[in-house]
Automatic annotation (TrEMBL):
Domain of life from the UniProt record: Bacteria
Domain DALR anticodon binding per the UniProt entry, residue ranges: 422-548
GO molecular function: arginine-tRNA ligase activity; ATP binding
The protein's name in its UniProt record: Arginine--tRNA ligase
GO cellular component term of the entry, any: cytoplasm
Subunit structure: Monomer.
Localization terms from the record: Cytoplasm
Annotated family: Belongs to the class-I aminoacyl-tRNA synthetase family.
Protein source organism: Candidatus Daviesbacteria bacterium GW2011_GWA2_42_7
Motif ('HIGH' region): 126-136
Keyword Ligase assigned: yes
Annotated keywords: Aminoacyl-tRNA synthetase, ATP-binding, Cytoplasm, Ligase, Nucleotide-binding, Protein biosynthesis
Length: 548
RNA sequence: GCGCCUGUAGCUCAGUGGAUAGAGUACAAGUUUCCGGAACUUGGGGUCGGAGGUUCGAAUCCUCUCAGGCGCGCCA
């Protein structure tokens, strides 16, 4: 689109002037006086002081400008202040951009960055020892949306839930239920909460099983009856539930341990098997296989199982595996990345950390703990607010922000959720098109296109141009998020789009515009706005209502 | 003690080297013969936790420091 064209022309000019090929940052200034696009490239170049050339930023900017020549799509290009280059696009060129949106329709916003490579996003992955919580909802919304964005960027994306369906916490689950039924001694570390009692009742025929076997049954049950439905309720469909237990069944755990030994990164000491994670920057080596003396029995740690898991997944040819973790797992990052590197997949794992969701009740913070039974489930949230509000809420925050959540206020606040502001804009767009007799999505060929001579020049109102400028940014936004993973930018983009549309709506009549041509052009603008907003909402997993 | 995250308007948060630091919300005052007022307009409100430093330029990078969160197991 326009931005790429301008970048290309700038690069050409710099090449002619024999400047080194540095990254050109083309920003879209908030301040209209600074043009439609702006770059600080001259300030950057003057800093390089390449060779014995030493020019002021203003001089460099002027030179670049003179080498650009007359670009037909610009109405003005100028050097301002310390050496900024500001570009002003001709309004008719800007409105001509709408043609591309109309042509692409539901595909508008997609890009080819991924070139068909495979990426896996692993998220939620909560232990199957209880219902999903608020924090899981946050991770779910972020992971699912990131997967959508990657998919729109030309990657083949897999959504994975790693199920820790064996090990201590599952044995503990079995014990907890046995204890609730009075068949085992109650212990401090047991899970509490109503669902444990329900499980004891539901599985009363199975209480003669040992804790581990019962735990396996319960974990499988919770996965199917609690976790999968809750994920679906918030709009998440996983491609794969990867079972930790299956790693044992397929002997992948021993294989991973053997491989690490072969490569010289695993060694035995004090009866345990260790991974030399200090070679990868960890503060100490980590245990892969416990010693009989240490925990009373020799068994693989969670860490070794997870290594086997990553080795198996990456062995399928993924370009990357992106894991979304709670901040409480931060200390685990170095050793896992180290193990992945040791197995020959260095740099293939990216981790997004989300900070904790703090829970407040009656103004007092409640520590969320599955063991203590103090937490808010995702289902409880979804009873208070609908799926769209919940997803939008979670996606409004950057992952590193610490969210304070007050369920008492969630319902009341849900009316103020910006999601309704955004959805209302979409409903307004739909309504106008409906009254004009348009089909919901039309193609450029089937109807007069704003790129057509005559129509292109119709749109000149500041509110129209501001809206167009925002609409055409979606592809760059999506491509950027595919690289920096900052999915919350989408909610801000959607809110801004709604804002610009509401303003346009207030100041520009569509159906009874002054002329037929203007009406036609404005209808096209409404249609493109609807396409763009609809596509954005679809990436967010939020519905785009025709009416509210 | 060490490591990571956070500290920006009354409140909730954007903004990771650029121009006069933004948005929502709250508060105040306005806007409907006409496409949906769940909207729009205007206004007040900031020592960007603090102190130094680097730079033509710092909320952003570096050092120190204060406050909060999380982690530091042969748990997961």
């Amino acid at each position: 689109m326009l931005k790429q064209q301008l970048l290309k022309d700038l690069r050409k000019a710099m090449e002619v002037m024999d400047y080194p090929a540095t990254d050109i940052v083309l920003s879209t200034p908030e301040n209209k006086a600074h043009g439609d696009y702006s770059t600080n490239i001259a300030l950057q170049l003057s800093k390089l002081k390449s060779g014995n050339r030493k020019h002021s930023p203003q001089e460099i900017a002027k030179q670049i400008l003179s080498h650009l020549g007359d670009l037909s799509y610009l109405s003005k290009a100028e050097v301002v202040g310390p050496g900024f280059l500001n570009f002003f696009i001709k309004p008719e060129v800007l409105s001509g951009q709408l043609a591309e949106i109309l042509e692409k329709g539901e595909d508008f916003g997609k890009n080819e960055l991924g070139k068909g490579e495979k990426i896996q996003v692993e998220f939620i992955s909560a232990n199957p020892t209880g219902p999903l919580t608020l924090a899981n909802g946050r991770g779910g919304a972020i992971g699912d949306t990131l997967a959508n964005v990657l998919s729109w960027s030309g990657y083949k994306v897999g959504r994975e839930y790693y199920v820790n369906d064996t090990g201590n916490q599952v044995r503990n689950l079995g014990e907890s239920v046995l204890a609730a039924a009075g068949k085992a001694e109650a212990k401090e570390e047991h899970y509490r909460g109503e669902y444990i009692k329900d499980l004891a009742e539901k599985f009363k025929d199975k209480l003669d099983l040992d804790p581990q076997s019962l735990g396996h049954l319960l974990a499988d049950y919770l996965l199917d009856s609690e976790i999968k439905p809750a994920a679906l309720r918030i709009g998440i469909k996983f491609d794969e539930f990867y079972s930790e237990r299956s790693l044992y069944e397929r002997n992948l755990i021993e294989k991973a341990a053997e491989l690490l030994k072969e490569k010289g990164f695993a060694y035995e000491n004090e009866g345990a098997l260790w991974f030399a994670s200090t070679k990868f920057g960890d503060e100490k080596d980590r245990v892969l296989m416990t010693s009989e003396g240490g925990r009373g029995r020799a068994e693989p740690t969670y860490f070794l199982a997870d290594i086997a898991h990553h080795f198996d997944v990456l062995g399928r040819g993924y370009l990357k595996k992106i894991n979304i973790w709670g901040a409480d797992h931060h200390g685990y990052e170095t050793r896992l990345k180290g193990a992945v590197a040791a197995l020959g997949f260095e740099g293939k794992v990216d981790i997004i950390f989300m900070q904790m969701v703090k829970l407040f009740r009656g103004g007092v913070e409640v520590k969320m703990s599955k063991r203590a039974g103090t937490y808010v489930t995702l289902d409880e949230l979804l009873e208070a607010v609908d799926k769209d509000a919940a997803r939008f809420f979670f996606l409004m925050y950057s992952p590193e922000s610490h969210i304070d959540f007050n369920l008492d206020l969630a319902k009341e606040q849900s009316n103020k959720n910006p999601v309704f502001y955004v959805q209302y804009a979409h409903a307004r767009m739909s309504n106008i098109l409906k009254k004009a007799g348009e089909k919901p999505i039309d193609s450029c060929k089937a109807r007069p296109c704003p790129a057509r001579p005559g129509l292109a020049g119709q749109l000149s109102h500041p509110a129209e141009l501001a809206l167009i400028k925002h609409l055409v940014q979606l592809p760059d936004l999506v491509e950027g998020i595919a690289q920096d993973y900052q999915v919350h930018k989408l909610t801000f983009y959607a809110t801004k789009l709604a804002d610009l549309f509401h303003k346009f709506y207030e100041s520009c009549r569509v159906l009874n515009a002054e002329t037929e041509g203007l009406k036609e052009a404005r209808l096209a603008l409404v249609l493109t706005a609807k396409i763009t907003l609809g596509n954005t909402l679809s990436l967010l997993g939020v519905s785009a209502p025709e009416r509210m």
